[in-house]
Amino acid sequence: MTRSQAKDPTRRLIPLGNPRAAELPIGSWLVAPRRGYTHHGIYVGAGQVVHYSGLSRRWKRGPVEIVSLAEFSLEWSVRAKWTPTARYVGLQAAERALSRLGEDNYHIMTNNCEHFCAWCLDGASRSRQVELWLAWPRATALAIVAWLVEVLTEVDPLRAKKRSPSWLAALSPDHRTA
Q: What is the rounded CA–CA span in Å between residue 24 and residue 85?
């Protein structure tokens, strides 16, 4: 268990066989690991989760649907995302999720499972994963431009190799999210 998980019990992994899985609050934003990304859904009670199936189980786009907790998680542990500033909580969040059942407008960049959950709890579609994916090309481009400026303005190219490369700073976490 990490230090942040110890401080915030809502971030702990919940094994499906664990009795805590039955105690999930209705309207919880659930996160399940996948290969290379995380899948998101809203717990609506009785062991059921509403999620944008999208590409969650196959390479074919899927609709918003209700599935069992085990099917949502693919038998992996899930975690409840901590959402202290949620605009809609509990039954309101669950009702918002259920109101979109059958919707089939999935788009990985603009309307995915994380956008869906953010809309259910906050009223605005947002995907942190997409934001991070889009930030990487920008950080790389900034690093290349900084490196080119440094190399092109250097009078003695041999001295440039001896100095600490300042262009690496463009890949720092501050620049990735800028």
A: 18
